Amino acid sequence: MNNFDKVKDYLMELEYSITNEDAENEFLIVESEEDGIKNAMIGIADPIIIVEQYLFDLNNNQGDVALELLKKNRDIVHGAFVLDDDGKKVLFRDTLQIDTLDLEELEGTLTSLSLLLSEYTDELLGFAKN
């Protein structure tokens, strides 16, 4: 079984909806309405997989928001808040080793994202409005 099929099988077992997939470029877009996850990208870039979820745009002069996000990174079990290459979008991101990936590890990352979205909803909404 190749890495793409391995990850896809895990996602199906975890009952995530796969809304888009590209086996050639090895990425999947997934969601779980009950977990608050929408359009999360899972890309395979051997030797790792990358899990990213767009959260909100960071407006100009939001150093305080960036500082608060960095502080909250200490509380996140798997993954972290990151900025995109332009420094404009705030994402959740986690990377996992593909060779040793198992169902529980992928589930841990997705559960961490889900908990982050549910526990920090008010803060994230506040950051997005600023």
Give a structural overview.
This protein has 130 residues and is an alpha+beta fold. It has a single domain, classed as Yope Regulator, Chain: A. It is built from 4 helices and 6 strands, in the order αββββαββαα. The chain has a 6-stranded antiparallel β-sheet with strand order 1-2-3-4-6-5. A hairpin with a 4-residue loop joins β1 and β2. The protein is elongated and about 45 Å long.
Strand ordering within the main sheet: 1-2-3-4-6-5
The averaged pLDDT comes out at: 92
Percent range for β-strand residues: 25-35%
Q: Largest beta sheet, briefly?
A: 6 strands, antiparallel
Q: Based on DSSP secondary structure assignment, what is the total number of beta strands? A: 6
Q: Structural class, from secondary structure content?
A: alpha+beta
Q: Which residues sit in consecutive blocks of at least 5 with pLDDT less than 50?
A: none
Overall radius of gyration:
15 Å
Q: Structurally, how many domains make up the residues?
A: 1
- The N- and C-terminal alpha carbons lie at a distance of 46 Å
The helix content is 25-40%
The CATH level-2 architecture is identified as 2-Layer Sandwich
The ordered string of helix (H) and strand (E) elements is: HEEEEHEEHH
Outline type: elongated
At the first level of CATH, the class is Alpha Beta
User: Would you tell me which CATH topology applies?
Assistant: Yope Regulator, Chain: A
Structure in a nutshell:
This protein is α+β, with helices and mostly antiparallel strands and 130 residues long. Helix content is 36%, strand content 34%. It has one domain: Yope Regulator, Chain: A.
